[in-house]
Amino acid sequence: MKNVILGISAYYHDSAAALVIDGDIVAAAQEERFSRKKNDSNFPSKAIVSILKYAHIKPEEVNLISFYEKNFLKFERLLETYHSFAPIGLESFLKSMPVWIKEKLFMKKLIRDELSTIGFDKNIKIIFPEHHLSHSASAFYPSPFQESAIITLDGVGEWDTASISSGNGHKIKLLRTMEFPHSVGLLYSAFTYYCGFKVNEGEYKLMGLAPYSNPNSKSVNEIINKIETELVKIHNDGSIVINLDYFNFPVGLTMTKDSSWEKLFALKRRKSDSALTQEYADLAFAVQKVTEKIFLAMAQTAKDLTGSTNLVLAGGVALNSVANGILLKSNIFENIWIQPASGDAGGSLGAALTAYHIYLDKHRIVEQPDKMKGSLLGIEYENSDVENVLQRWEYQYHHITSKDELYKLAARYIADGKVVGYFQGRMEFGPRALGCRSFLADSRIAEMQSKLNLKIKFREGFRPFAPAVMEEHAQSWFDIEVPSPYMLNVIPVKEDLCNPLPEDYYNMGLMERLYFKRSKIPAVTHLDYSARIQTVNKDVNPHFYGVLKSFYEITGCPVIINTSFNVRDEPIVSSPDDALNCFMKTDTDILFLNDYLIIKSEQSIISDEHLSDFGREK
Amino acid sequence: MKFDIQSISDILICPKCSSNLLFQNESISCNNCTFHFTIDEGILLSNPENSITDNRILKEKEFYEENPFPNYDELESPFSLISKAERANFPKQINDLLPFRIRILEAGCGTGQLTNYLSFSERQVIGTDLSVNSLKLGNEFKNKHSLDRSMFIQMNIFEPCFCDESFHLVISNGVLHHTPNPELAFQILTKLLKKHGYIIIGLYNKYGRLSTHIRRIIYNLTGSRLDFLDPHLRRKDISEIKKQMWFMDQYKNPHESSHTFEEVIKWFESNNIDFVSAIPEFDFGTTNKNIFAKQNIGTELSRKLKQLLMVFKRYNEGGFFVVIGRKRA
Fold first, then answer.
1. How far is B135 from chain A, CA to nearest CA, in Å?
2. How many whole angstroms separate alpha carbon A343 and alpha carbon A155?
3. B7 in any annotated domain
4. ipTM of this predicted complex?
5. A contacts of B98 (beta carbons < 8 Å)
6. For the whole model, what pTM was predicted?
7. Is the pLDDT score of B15 beyond 90?
8. To the nearest whole angstrom, how far is the Cα of A580 from the nearest Cα of chain B?
9. pLDDT per residue over B272-283, tens digit each?
């Protein structure tokens, strides 16, 4: 009998489900893609139904459910924390306790009730691995390593905020943990909050803002010094102690004690809609540097504890691609592999793999380059599904019958300066679009960054974009020696492709600096000449590779911009309907929906029959 | 979808005699009379002031030429306009619920912030206003950010330059009550609407506007010294310029009328428009946030009570209400 295991993460943020059959990762998807609520934390019913349907598995065929964390431990942590701080935190305590007592504490029943509404047996077996074990499993088991050091780093799980383990075969041995409230993730989130971005969503923005700082300025070094002396003590082994005089997150409803921060940094907390100034860029840069320092120290400790030459990473902090790039360059480990769904969504996959390898004690087969299938683990749509949608809404379209022709056409449009929506095959699992639900554009056009930000993504003009490059050409364009298939490393653009900074560079305004043409691929070159690179392998992601190859044949450049197919504050598109909505919502010129080409300029005003479409939420 | 002056030639007519227009190079003139549009940086100007005889309309035009409202001072990019729309919620709500590939008229668009915002998506949005200075602000933003799905036309609402049944949606938010004959203006707008098309109108309410009227009397007697009486002017999160614009719009506007729910229901009835929804709702217990979904129209009593509540409750723009209707076949 097959071992069919469903992993679930839910009720915090970014719920997801993953299906593992006899150790093979068959499918995985985040609930937000179906509910269309960004970082949806609700039970992932829609994701479960979709991945089961994709895999032709009926609910009764699932043998085991694995939920990504132990709620009793989490509840214990909450109670102890409130108790230690009482009477401070009473307001937060009174808000959270009813939800816990009513719902979360009885998680098993809650999950069973939810599962029964989508056809599962009420008595199905459910297990609950620890949060950081789920993360560790998501990093180690799909990795290409037989044995490895494992680091997980995030905000907080039950008690743990970070862990170091060793993995060997199908065993994971926990070696060291760091406990709440001392958390690198929460430290980073506190700065995200203070700089006016949303916690659990705005961390990327903070990372993108950091390069606008002047790394050599006195003020930045002072801020770093203040962080390390006042906010957090960093031990040699990478463990940290947070100074709670400055933080409100253990029991409060906010992250920081604003008056203390104002006094320390002589800077008020930024309102989300107010201008981004140099001071906030300096704060972003400083906390990035501190994070990197902790990250490297922790990696060294993991190396010392395990003696392994391999490292795998997971947890939200592992999505800090700048820190990952630094770690890669540090050569502490010879080989590094990072779970592409490192956040809590990936916990569902880790939970399922924990169930298979630890709970059921099943052996593991290591695969190259890894077992994630390019993270293309979501669902896909048939051409007939696409055609139905196009006809229903009276779109003009062209059916492209040859894939080679499709790749060439897409590449030609990109080379002509068009923005192309690209929707092919299975949806990505994790926060990154890897070329199957992506906007693609020409990396050589400097203005493309502001066009994409302001008229496609509708977001702040400073946000950077990432390059996708044919794997075999990566070393000629970027300072990298190993593949980076999941866009999780920020590394330098090759020096000979870069232009030197003008003398008055640091006297320029933030936006002026942004528009300085730094390299031959300016639209994807960050202010510090780095790029968050995705290398594309022709066997793993043939649809995307095909476009890159054709673009290379047309232009001699193997690099294009790849950014997620969504607008600000919306999840990446999932279905053809979502893709068409997003296409029409933005200034995108061209859309490839499976084998269909839709050209914006060919569309006409809708017929009056479609007036009933008023009020349909998109 | 191509969207330029040429591409709307099928719906443009002469505002004076409703005849067809002749499109030649840069000039657009009437086939039948002496009227012609002038084009200034892409704005179609009908220069109606020469033929307007009602002094109230002229005064209103002068007021908005001097006080274009609202300005774009803090809106540097599409991102900031979108953020503003999201904070205000109502524009975002409309945007999220509208289909694509439709034609929209915003009659009385002022500086065109809503027109530009709705045009970020694939829709053809035409903003019209009497005030050239207001239109210029909207057009500057459009040109600066290459928004090629919005267009601005100077138009007197009583002399429309569009064929009947040209638009899927007509919006006139906070405009009709500044005209000398709001009911006639409404009637004209409904003609421009396609069958089954929607209309959104925002008006001052007779009851809701009471406190503003009282404050206006006080300000007229005392000058603006007692500006703290207006809750909007007490706010600390908006700039002094914005407060000044608000003060002018609310208390120094040369002409305004206010209206009841009943009046609007009558306008709807006599112009073949079905009631769809309203903000605030006409009935108690209606919670559907989809403004294009049919709401209960309530009873005379519920509507009276709802309006009385507006005296005490601070709705947007002191006593403002919005009604959405749909044209019958």
1. 22
2. 10
3. no
4. 0.86
5. 614
6. 0.89
7. yes
8. 10
9. 999 999 999 999
